[in-house]
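Changelog-adjacent note: as of this version, every example in the card shows the full chain rather than a window. The one below runs 174 residues end to end.
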Amino acid sequence: KAQKLLQDLETTIKNDKKVNLYHQNALISYQDKKFDDAITLWEKILKIDPQRQEAQEYIAKAKQEQDIYDTIKDYINKGLQAYNQNDYKMAISYWQKVLDLNPSNAQASFYISKTQVLLNFEERCQKLLEKAEQYVRTNKLDNAIECYQKLADIDQGNLAISLKIDELQELKQI
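Full-length structure tokens:
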């Protein structure tokens, strides 16, 4: 009988060491956002000790975090797709959804600020272009040239703008 008790005690100690090792590795995996690995380790704990409530709670939390993490990755990627298709407002809306889920997400914050600068740049250029075209329609060529010159200063090296300025200067001399 004593031999059996001793074997049971050794098994319990051995299992406790395994459980502690699995738990520590699961926590590391969880922190590294390797949720599947963490869940697998906590499930191993439950096979050793099905009554471990703590492992069940961690599994539930890891599954929830995995869902959020996957959703965030999806929104980041959809935002990048929209950005690459020059749909900047849609891109920002996807990245804003990331911030709704995780307000401290640096990647989404960076992409939003970068895209807003680009969007503001495009809007400024569009307004100047519309203003210049209005001046051309009303035959205010000096004003139109001035607007196109501002566009050229903003978008240096744009050949179309330079050609338009030359064209308007020739029209002015006629």
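Structural remarks: The helical segments are 2-31, 35-48, 53-84, 88-101, 106-137, 141-154, 159-173.
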